[in-house]
Amino acid sequence: MPMTVGPPLAATILVADDMEENREMLAAMLRNEGYRVVLAADGGEALELLATGPIDLALLDIQMPRRTGISVCREIKSKGDTRLLPVVLITGSTGPDDRMRGIECGADDFLNKPVKKEELIARVKSLLRIKQYTDELENAETVLFTLALSIEAKDPYTEGHCDRLSKLSVALGRRIGLPNDQLVALRRAGMVHDLGKTSISESILLKPGPLSDAEWVLMRKHPEVGERICQPLRSFGMVLPIIRHHHEKLDGSGYPDGLHSPAIPLTARILTTVDIYDALTTDRPYRKALSLERAFEIMRGEVKRGWWDGDLVTELEAQLRDIPVPGAPIEGAPGHLIISGEAASSWQEAHGLHI
Ligand SMILES: [Fe+2]
């Protein structure tokens, strides 16, 4: 059974080493500093403990039975819920091989045996400080995502929209070869792009009929308001232009800035393309979801009008035909177009139901 010692509110540190003497020595050093310590006798037990309770930092001996420290570290860094957990590998060798393998598996730091107390405590403190920042960052992101979902929940016709937008935008970005930081920005933007709608009353957001001019003025402010809400988060730097420009059109007739292509950021154009597609292929009070075929027919027509990025529309269609998105309508699926004239504009639909 693992042994737990230390004040309940202190950070919890996992110490995994098959040599009891080493484990106890490390545990004693950490307990003296007030940390809570959880002990594992091998790599397998370390993973079991990680799955059962919150751990703030892992100290892993590289050479252990069942699973080595390298193997445990690789697993920690590959899982979404533990990838930000700091890992320190403890090595008995002074050669470069262990360090190279440790770096490759994503370890945050190394300690050489015999471990010196001052060195151990300095690294633990430093990594726990970084962990605290990332936890706070994650909390802020979670708050924004929750707020965005609460807006989505007000309208039964947009259920799941943010999640689909997030996933499909990332898939399209990946397809055209965007770097990872832009994919992360797209994932976040998919969730929070309409956060600015918190400033708009439900009577406008859920209005079944056309909006008045005054109501449109308010509606058109939501990209700027959303940008302002997310601005304090430094990690959202690449997300802000996507939020601000997700209602721009290539011919300059969009808002809030009336940008012309190519001034509209590529990531914003990706989100817009997916947003329009999702609006067309989900149920509305006045019609069923359109088929993929019909949705792209409308979008291609609007590409000709100078609204959307034709290359992205083509890539999105190819993406969806290659890998169908779960829940998305497919060609030939039920869904009949009962809108007409100007109401058939995907642009109006992407604003909600205000046609
Ligand atoms: Fe929007």
Compile the SSE list and pairings.
Layout: E1 4-5, E2 12-16, H1 20-32, E3 36-40, H2 43-52, E4 57-61, H3 69-78, E5 87-91, H4 96-104, E6 109-112, H5 117-154, H6 161-175, H7 180-192, H8 202-205, H9 213-219, H10 222-230, H11 240-245, H12 266-280, H13 292-304, H14 310-322, H15 346-350
Parallel strand pairs: 2-3, 2-4, 4-5, 5-6
Antiparallel strand pairs: 1-3
Helix pairs in contact: 2-3, 6-7, 6-12, 7-12
The structure holds fe (ii) ion.
General description of the model:
The protein is α/β, with parallel strands linked by helices. The chain has two domains: 4-134, 3-Layer(aba) Sandwich (Rossmann fold), CATH 3.40.50; 155-350, Hypothetical protein af1432, CATH 1.10.3210.10. It has helices at residues 20-32, 43-52, 69-78, 96-104, 117-154, 161-175, 180-192, 202-205, 213-219, 222-230, 240-245, 266-280, 292-304, 310-322, 346-350, and strands spanning 4-5, 12-16, 36-40, 57-61, 87-91, 109-112. A six-stranded mixed sheet has the order 1-3-2-4-5-6, sandwiched between helices. Helix 1 (20-32) links the parallel strand 2 and strand 3 (36-40). It starts with a strand and ends in a 5-residue tail after the last helix. Fe (ii) ion binds next to loops.
Largest sheet: 6 strands, mixed
CATH architectural name of the largest domain: Orthogonal Bundle
- Give the H and E element order: EEHEHEHEHEHHHHHHHHHHH
CATH topology of the largest domain: Hypothetical protein af1432
Runs in which pLDDT lies below 50 for 5 or more consecutive residues are 1-8, 325-344, 351-355
Strand order of the largest sheet: 1-3-2-4-5-6
Number of domains: 2
Number of helices, counting only DSSP H or I runs of 4 residues or more:
15
